[in-house]
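Retro notes (design track)

What went well: tokenization of the new backbones is finally stable.
What didn't: we kept losing track of which sequence belonged to which structure.
Fix going forward: every design gets posted as structure first, then sequence, in one message. First example under the new rule, 203 residues:
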């Protein structure tokens, strides 16, 4: 009858090698987990930034499509604009404009893109109003009611068609917004552009 082999004890060297290999494996697993977690956080941050930029562009597109080119004032640097929205038609079919103004502007110092509304900015509802550069800056700087704010914006432009020089405004307009992705080590910005067709009716 054969006797079972005696169990062989591990030597100290073998135990040290096993512990060393286990430590290496644990370090690799921890690093993989950290990289995966960081990538997940970056992707979530990027997705949030994309959603925020998309909502802002859609809001601006909606504002621009509520008027004609003659009711849009774009600053020379194309980072500020004022919109004079159309109102409902009168009983005899004539189109009138609202008295309020909608202003979009980027503060490059704070990287904040702001939408503001100004009541009674335009007293004459019978025709669209266009503002000069100084008038745009004065209106934007006068306060107003902030209805939308987006931070970490590195670029905001509303570009006229190449064939239409400012202060005239044509259609379509190209709206671009760039925003930083917080905590991202790669693809650190979200960039989005949209071509907006404005109602016809003079420039």
């Amino acid at each position: 009858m054969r006797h079972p082999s005696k169990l062989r004890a591990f030597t100290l060297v073998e135990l040290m090698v096993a512990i060393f290999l286990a430590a290496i494996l644990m370090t690799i697993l921890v690093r993989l987990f950290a990289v995966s977690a960081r990538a997940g956080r970056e992707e979530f941050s990027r997705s949030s930034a994309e959603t925020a930029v998309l909502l802002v562009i859609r809001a601006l597109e909606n504002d621009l499509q509520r008027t004609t080119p003659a009711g849009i004032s774009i600053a020379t640097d194309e980072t500020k604009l004022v919109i004079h929205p159309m109102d409902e038609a009168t009983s005899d079919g004539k189109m009138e404009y609202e008295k309020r103004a909608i202003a979009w502007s980027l503060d490059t110092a704070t990287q904040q893109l702001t939408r503001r509304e100004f009541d009674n900015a335009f007293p004459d509802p019978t025709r669209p109003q266009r503002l000069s550069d100084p008038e745009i800056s004065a209106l934007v700087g006068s306060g107003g009611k902030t209805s939308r704010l987006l931070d970490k914006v590195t670029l905001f432009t509303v570009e006229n068609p190449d064939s239409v020089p400012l202060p005239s405004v044509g259609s379509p307009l190209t709206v671009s917004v760039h925003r930083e992705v917080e905590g991202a080590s790669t693809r650190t910005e979200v960039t989005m552009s949209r071509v907006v067709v404005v109602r016809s009716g003079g420039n």
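Added context from the reviewer: The first helix runs from residue 12 to 64.
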